[in-house]
Design goal:
Elements: H1 8-25, H2 32-44, H3 49-56, H4 59-68, H5 74-78, H6 95-103, E1 107-116, E2 119-125, E3 128-139, H7 143-155, E4 162-168, H8 176-188, E5 192-197
Helix pairs in contact: 2-4, 3-4
């Protein structure tokens, strides 16, 4: 990704505006086609592309910057991760709440173990602090990334069981067929499946 000399105050203003619009659109659950339409609109928008153009140089470079920089970080930012997290208008549900929704009461989340690719933490149950698990979560569209991260970690020697939690919204529900497929895949891989509806 090409680095551009965008003034930090301008970058912050543009990203804040993008994150506000993304929240209004429920960005996390948009399809690729819907996202493409918004990237095109933002590229030609004087408040977004118009402000970036003097520093990015060419109109065709605006969209890749939007997609590969602030919007690539958007989901992580909604969970409080990354330099743009303070610019998020509507933060996502905290991971501790997702864990409780997915697995029930009594789990402690160790935020010191937070990893970001994918979002993942170590959790321990109050009844047995020796029983640790990894809890990885993402929207349905990123299920394959969660599964791959778990497989790669375990192949690399991670002894902990992995919980793969897909998150959907009331607006974009995971279908029963998708949920059943996820559960079959996760079972075959020796992982634990969870699902949470959030916002």
């Amino acid at each position: 990704m090409t680095k551009y000399a965008i003034p930090s105050d301008l970058e912050e203003e543009v990203v804040r505006l993008l994150y506000k619009r993304a929240a209004d659109l429920n960005w996390t659950y948009l399809t690729d086609t819907e996202r493409t339409r918004h990237y095109q609109a933002w590229t030609s928008d004087p408040q977004v592309g118009g402000r970036l153009l003097p520093f990015i140089g060419k109109p065709e470079n605006v969209r890749p910057w939007l997609k590969d920089r602030p919007m690539k970080e958007y989901i992580r930012a909604t969970y409080g991760v990354g330099k743009w997290a303070p610019l998020v208008v509507r933060p996502a549900t905290p991971v501790s709440v997702l864990v409780e929704k997915a697995l029930g009461h009594g789990w402690e989340v160790d935020l010191e173990t937070l990893d970001i690719k994918p979002l993942c933490v170590t959790i321990r149950h109050d009844d047995d602090e020796e029983m640790e698990q990894r809890f990885a979560w993402a929207p349905m569209r990123d299920f394959k990334h969660l599964a791959w991260a778990a497989i790669a970690a375990q192949a690399g020697g991670d002894p902990l069981p992995w919980v793969i939690c897909t998150v959907d919204s009331f607006v974009r529900k995971i279908t029963p067929e998708q949920k059943a497929t996820n559960e079959r895949i996760v079972k075959r891989l020796g992982l634990i499946s969870a699902h949470v509806t959030d916002g």
